[in-house]
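Regression check, NDP case 280:
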Amino acid sequence: MTSASEAGTAGQLLVIGAGRMGGAMIEGWIARGRDPHSITVIDPSADGRARLQARGVRVAADADAVAMPDGGFDVLVVAVKPQNFEAALPPAAPLVGPETLVVSVAAGKTVQTLRDLLGHPRKVIRAMPNTPAAIGRGITGCYAVPETEGGDRALAETLLSAVGEVVWIEDEGLIDAVTAVSGSGPAYVFHMIEAMTLAGEEVGLPHETARRLARATVIGAAALADASSETETALREAVTSPAGTTAAALSVLMDRQVGLPPLMARAVTAARDRGRELAG
Ligand SMILES: NC(=O)C1=CN([C@@H]2O[C@H](COP(=O)(O)OP(=O)(O)OC[C@H]3O[C@@H](n4cnc5c(N)ncnc54)[C@H](OP(=O)(O)O)[C@@H]3O)[C@@H](O)[C@H]2O)C=CC1
Ligand SMILES: O=C(O)[C@@H]1CCC=N1
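Current build output:
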């Protein structure tokens, strides 16, 4: 087993579930120079396995088919759906050693559940990334159990920062809130494009024109926010002429009773509560 600091690019990684999230992380690690042979994937999808194998990643259809590396796995990344936990995790428990760092990106599933299903590993980190990870523009919120050491957190941060920014929280109970804001958040933004497209059609634009305008506006506004040192509030105010068209729209969107803030609060609370339900 390598030291935690070496394992940013060295060390042996086991990934259970290489779909959208697991796959994006693997691509990020390889892009950052990790040897694909240091990654082992368990995934039942034959197509997915063939794609990864062609990239040099070691693959197995199930835990029984995994060849344990000398010294064991340094990190186990759990990236299966919460609904697949019971089937996927217990068979992998023998692959988890006393020094293996378990990093789970699954929504809802608690440290306690991970420990119960994986033979009670000591070092567990819950991480919540999002799909912009696929282009290296994700953000991941992380919680580490007190049993982890500085080197474990540094190792997790190295792995997760391969696909974007990393923020740490000190309370596991807040991971569901992170999920509700940034984990699920990209879907809210894509839905904003859909809603602006529909609204454009309702005021007379052809569908494709409305879609092009809406999409380029969201992408352009996000890029401007990214490039600018100004706050979102300042950027919003820069669009808003006194008594102009934007002010008319914002009087609807910013209504405290029926505007976007109370609607977004309901949506984020619903996501947070669903995360809590998935824990069970
Ligand atoms: N998508 C997102 O935006 C985010 C997802 N997450 C979390 O990431 C996790 C994975 O989500 P996502 O990547 O979207 O899901 P995907 O369905 O894309 O990926 C899950 C992968 O796990 C595989 N799988 C199913 N059963 C098993 C098993 N028994 N052993 C090993 N692998 C298995 C699936 O194969 P098959 O398709 O053949 O079933 C699939 O390839 C979830 O827990 C989710 O909460 C976290 C942040 C954001
Ligand atoms: O929808 C979900 O449950 C997962 C977690 C965050 C994004 N997708």
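Comparison notes: The first strand starts at residue 13 and ends at 16. The mean pLDDT is 95. No diff flagged against the previous build.
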